[in-house]
Design brief:
Blueprint (H helix, E strand, L loop, with lengths): L1 E7 L2 E6 L9 E10 L2 H8 L9 E2 L4 E8 L11 E4 L2 E2 L5 H4 L10 E2 L11 E5 L3 E3 L12 H14 L6 E5 L3 H13 L4 E6 L2 H9 L4 E4 L5 H4 L7 E4 L6 H8 L5 E4 L11 H5 L4 E4 L7 H9 L9 E6 L3 H10 L6 E5 L2
Parallel strand pairs: 11-12, 11-14, 12-13, 14-15, 15-16, 17-18
Antiparallel strand pairs: 1-2, 1-4, 3-5, 3-9, 3-18, 5-6, 6-10, 7-8
Helix pairs in contact: 3-4, 3-9
Bound molecules: 1,4-dihydronicotinamide adenine dinucleotide (NAI), manganese (II) ion (MN) and zinc ion.
Zinc ion (ZN) binds next to helix 2.
Length: 336
């Protein structure tokens, strides 16, 4: 089989590898489509602190179960599945309180173990979620990125009367817009980015208002509007202080970033307005929820997609994705 392997930081190869055998409790998936994420690019360049090499990357993938390991019901062979990359132990403290995404022995498919940019991938059977026929193959790998928005909004509890502000109109910001509008019916969703092309995508994904902060600071453009719910999907460490300054009293702020740089912020700017801060990493069992949202037509994954490439074009696809955020959003790889 063909697999995209990062042999070591900087070295990406399309390698010929043996088809894996599913271990006890696992399924093997014949991968059909997989989508590229910023973290795949980070692993390629050696900028992901969690990655171990060599690694088959890819944590957003869809396929059909073609073999099962011991203890897995063989009737699952032939099932169309989206695979949750979060593999957890099930008994540590975070697992015991429903937070497997921060399991003390967390293992992420495509990061800590081999992933889905490959003709075949193996995963625990319970990580493979059956998909209804209404979700087409070409879009099924996008369940995972929407689970990020599902996870952070579960903390933020959006309400229809919220005035939401989203920093960043990349894939993460766009999924957040769709979930706030389509699932939670938030009246006003505002989005800020520095690229006009990305802001146009934000509008197409349902944003009610967009702001470009490339030259004029956001504060000067908001005209006193105080957001009650803020999501940082741009993830620059300076954003938290600005968000706290702009927020309404009693607002909630959600953070998604992994920067190792400090964010400078005063206690006063948070406590005087009694702001709530939430962080969110990956997802905690949110695949069923997102699959239901797609099935009900509450979210539109096709609005994120700009390109399809065959797996053979992996380097071209990853390079375009990395270098060209003005024309690229979600890039999907097709296997075979
Ligand atoms: P992206 O790079 O495609 O999008 C970020 C957007 O933010 C870009 O359009 C960029 O122009 C804009 N931006 C950058 N600085 C800005 C600023 N100061 N003000 C306004 N806009 C600004 O990335 P993507 O895929 O949407 O991911 C966004 C972030 O989310 C990344 O930092 C990533 O590490 C993080 N992430 C976190 C996850 C989690 O589970 N916590 C999961 C996936 C991504
Ligand atoms: Mn991803
Ligand atoms: Zn655990």
């Amino acid at each position: 089989m063909k697999s995209v392997v990062i042999e070591q930081p900087g070295e990406l190869v399309l390698a010929e590898r043996a088809v894996p055998t599913p271990a006890a409790g696992e399924v093997r998936v014949r991968v059909k489509y997989a989508s590229i994420c910023g973290s795949d690019v980070h692993i390629w360049h050696g900028h992901n602190p969690f990655a171990r090499y060599p690694r088959v990357i890819g944590h957003e993938f869809f396929g059909v179960i073609d073999a099962v390991g011991a203890g897995v019901d063989a009737s699952r062979i032939g099932e169309r599945v989206a695979v949750d990359p979060v593999v957890s132990c099930g008994h540590c403290y975070p697992c015991s309180v429903g937070r497997p995404n921060v399991c003390t022995t967390l293992s992420v498919i495509g990061v800590h173990r081999d992933g889905g940019f490959s003709d075949y991938a193996v995963a625990p059977a319970s990580n493979a979620y059956a998909l209804p026929a209404t979700i087409p193959d070409k879009l099924a790998s996008l369940v995972e990125p929407f689970t990020i928005a599902a996870n952070i909004t579960a903390f933020l509890q959006p309400q229809p009367q919220d005035v939401a502000l989203i920093y960043g109109a990349g894939p993460m910001g766009l999924t957040a817009i769709q979930v706030l509008k389509g699932v939670y019916n938030v009246a006003q969703v505002l989005v800020v980015d520095r690229l006009p092309e990305r802001l146009a995508l934000a509008k197409a994904n349902g944003a009610d208002g967009v702001f470009n902060n490339a030259e004029v600071p956001l504060a000067a453009q908001l005209e006193g509007v105080q957001p009650t719910l803020i999501i940082d999907a741009a993830c620059h460490p300076a954003i938290l202080a600005e968000a706290a300054a702009l927020a309404s009293p009693a607002a909630r702020i959600g953070l998604l970033g992994f920067s190792g740089e400090p964010s400078s912020i005063t206690q006063q700017s948070l406590t005087s307005k009694e702001l709530s801060l939430f962080t969110s990493r990956l997802n905690s069992h949110r695949f069923p929820q997102v699959i239901a949202w797609m099935e009900q037509g509450l979210i539109q994954p096709e609005k994120l997609v700009t390109h399809y490439f065959p797996l053979d074009d992996i380097e071209r696809a990853m390079t375009l994705f990395e270098k060209d955020p003005r024309t690229c959003c979600k890039v999907i790889l097709q296997m075979q």
